[in-house]
Design a protein that fits this description.
Elements lengths: L9 E6 H15 L2 E6 L10 E3 L10 H6 L5 H8 L4 E7 L3 H16 L3 E8 L5 H17 L2 E6 H7 L5 H18 L8 E7 L7 H15 L5 E9 L6 H15 L6 E5 L8 E7 L40
Parallel strand pairs: 1-2, 1-4, 2-3, 4-5, 5-6, 6-7, 8-9
Antiparallel strand pairs: 7-10, 8-10
Helix pairs in contact: 1-7, 3-4, 4-5, 6-8
């Protein structure tokens, strides 16, 4: 996909709390329309929104939330049909993101939209969330024209001393930066991994090293394709330093294609370096789902995501 594939009008879809926060921030700087989808009323008070009412369930599971999506499918389709490009932002480590995102990307694709998905994967210590985040990622990758993945666990590996608030601030900033820069760069078709440096590293070369370490934590070196390197204007890199960084990136990744360097004009994103790299093979997320080796065409009812609908059968009491 190249930049010409991002055709207006563009709709931002924020899923859950994280998606809402990032979508509203991007809307304020891009002017894109925005829709919020969540099963939490606190997330759905801004403009156009869809509150997924899961009553009478107080703490519904991923599969239970998913079963209620069928009641909103036609309304969401009518909104998506007014746009050419739909950008979906979600946290697959959260219940709302994992439950809703596969449905939204599928609905957007059925409306003949260009679908661009941004997802955040959970930390590895969130054991109960790994499996369903991986299955959701697999479904989203099939229905998305471009998929960008930010791995919280890989960021934790290179920054073990960060607090959760610091980690979330850095990852949110990276997502906002990449989304805002999309119209000005050549897009990656397929799956891309977003990486960045820690908050206390201001040297661009060391920051790039941290970003590459994060990248290798999520993907095998042989699976990597073209990279895009974003350097904050606040880093004040010289032209010679930029040239050196690009050369090092090409040598490290052993790719023939040139890595693209883009100076961030506003200098607003937290950190020094953001790195986006295309992945052309397997990633560690495939290991989260033991059944990932089975192709979709060999699975029964793959088109319908797993859910737990409430079915009341008129059976008499038998004693």
């Amino acid at each position: 996909m190249d930049s010409s594939d991002i055709i207006g009008p563009v709709l931002l879809v924020g899923v859950g709390g994280l998606g809402r926060k990032i979508a509203l921030e991007v809307r304020s700087s891009t002017g894109y329309d925005c829709v919020i989808v969540s099963n939490d009323k606190h997330d759905t008070g801004d403009g156009t929104s869809f509150y997924i009412d899961c009553k009478p369930w107080v703490n519904p599971s991923v599969f239970r939330i998913r079963s209620f999506m069928k009641y909103y499918e036609s309304k969401i389709s009518s909104v998506f049909s007014n746009y050419k490009t739909v950008i979906i932002i979600s946290n697959l480590g959260g219940k709302t993101g994992a439950a809703v995102s596969p449905f939204l990307s599928s609905i957007a694709k059925s409306c003949l939209n260009k679908v661009i998905s941004f997802v955040v994967m959970p930390f590895r210590f969130e054991k109960e969330r790994l499996f369903y985040s991986a299955t959701c990622l697999r479904r989203i990758s099939i229905t998305s024209d471009a998929l960008f993945v930010l791995d919280n666990d890989a960021f934790l590996e290179i920054n073990p001393d960060l607090s959760l608030d610091e980690c979330y601030s850095m990852t949110n900033s990276a997502l906002i930066n990449i989304i805002k820069l999309m119209p000005s760069v050549t897009m990656i078709r397929g799956e891309g991994v977003i990486c960045m440096n820690g908050p206390k590293e201001f040297d661009a070369e060391k920051a790039l090293r941290d970003s590459i370490a994060m990248l290798y934590s999520s993907s095998e070196p042989d699976a990597l394709g073209k990279s895009f390197l974003y350097i904050s204007k606040s880093s004040k890199c010289s032209i010679g330093s930029l040239n050196t960084l690009v050369d090092k990136l090409r040598k490290i990744q052993s790719i023939d294609r040139l890595a693209e360097v883009d100076l961030h004009t506003s200098g607003n994103f937290t950190g020094t370096v953001n790195l986006v790299t295309a992945v052309e093979g397997t990633t560690k997320f495939d290991s989260y789902d033991p059944l990932a080796i089975i192709p979709p065409e060999s699975c029964l009812d793959w088109e319908v995501p797993d859910s737990h609908p409430q079915i009341n059968l008129p059976l008499p009491d038998i004693e």
